[in-house]
């Protein structure tokens, strides 16, 4: 359980859970700047019988506080997510259980998504969201996103890690499902990097 604004993370038992460690050895998502045990504790998913899980990561040349200020805005995902055209939050106050209605841009196999805020921890910079409705095939989708400070080329940078679990749709394999979801998440994180690094450039401009 993680409470808004600084609650402690209590990790569930490891047995029977997918762990980020299962993905950390791939060259594509190799993580070297953050303690692996710390990441394992944060990124754990209790998988159902017909679910798959995986993760993506992104190194961003921007300070961690700047990146987190964008990520934590559950009410404004369109600030960096390129596939979202509109977002309406049912609760004025952001708290665990808050629900947002998201409109998806044309070109994707969906138009709407209903998403619930599961966890928000400003101390550990952790955001978790669960999809609870919408006209798409991502059933029982949940994600955990964390941001971590690092040094890139001698300057303050950020490592973003996002893991997920989702039902495998009928007619698809776990590999196909993970490939599709990871492609979407990589687009989101690339856009997050672009937005963050552009803000840094503006701050440094004379």
From TrEMBL:
Compartments where located: Cytoplasm; Nucleus
Keyword Nucleus: yes
GO cellular component: cytoplasm; nucleus
Main subcellular location of this protein, as a coarse class: cytoplasm
InterPro entries to which the protein is assigned, alphabetical: Plant_def-hormone_signal, Polyketide_cyclase/dehydratase, START-like_dom_sf
Record GO terms (molecular function): abscisic acid binding; protein phosphatase inhibitor activity; signaling receptor activity
GO terms under biological process: abscisic acid-activated signaling pathway
UniProt cross-references to CDD domains, sorted A to Z: PYR_PYL_RCAR_like
Keyword Signal recorded: no
Keywords attached to this entry: Abscisic acid signaling pathway, Cytoplasm, Nucleus, Protein phosphatase inhibitor, Receptor
PANTHER family, per database record: ABSCISIC ACID RECEPTOR PYL8 (PTHR31213:SF4), OS08G0374000 PROTEIN-RELATED (PTHR31213)
Family the entry assigns: Belongs to the PYR/PYL/RCAR abscisic acid intracellular receptor family.
Protein's name according to its UniProt entry: Uncharacterized protein
Organism field: Rhynchospora breviuscula
């Amino acid at each position: 359980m993680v409470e808004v604004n600084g609650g402690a993370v209590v990790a569930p038992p490891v047995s029977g859970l997918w762990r980020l460690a299962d993905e950390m050895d791939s060259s594509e998502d190799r993580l070297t700047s953050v303690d692996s045990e710390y990441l394992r504790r944060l990124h754990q998913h209790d998988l159902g019988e017909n679910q798959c899980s995986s993760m993506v990561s992104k190194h961003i040349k921007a300070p961690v506080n700047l990146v987190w200020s964008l990520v934590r805005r559950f009410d404004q995902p369109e600030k960096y997510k390129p596939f979202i055209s509109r977002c309406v939050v049912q609760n004025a106050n952001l708290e665990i259980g808050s629900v947002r209605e998201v409109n998806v841009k044309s070109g994707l196999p969906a138009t709407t998504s209903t998403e619930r805020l599961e966890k928000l921890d400003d101390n550990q910079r952790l955001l978790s969201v669960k999809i609870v409705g919408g006209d798409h095939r991502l059933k029982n989708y949940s994600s955990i996103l964390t941001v971590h400070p690092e040094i890139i080329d001698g300057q303050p940078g950020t490592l973003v890690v996002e893991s997920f679990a989702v039902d495998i749709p009928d007619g698809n394999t776990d590999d196909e499902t993970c490939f599709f979801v990871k492609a979407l998440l990589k687009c989101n994180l690339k856009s997050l990097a672009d937005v963050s690094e552009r803000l840094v450039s503006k701050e440094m401009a004379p």
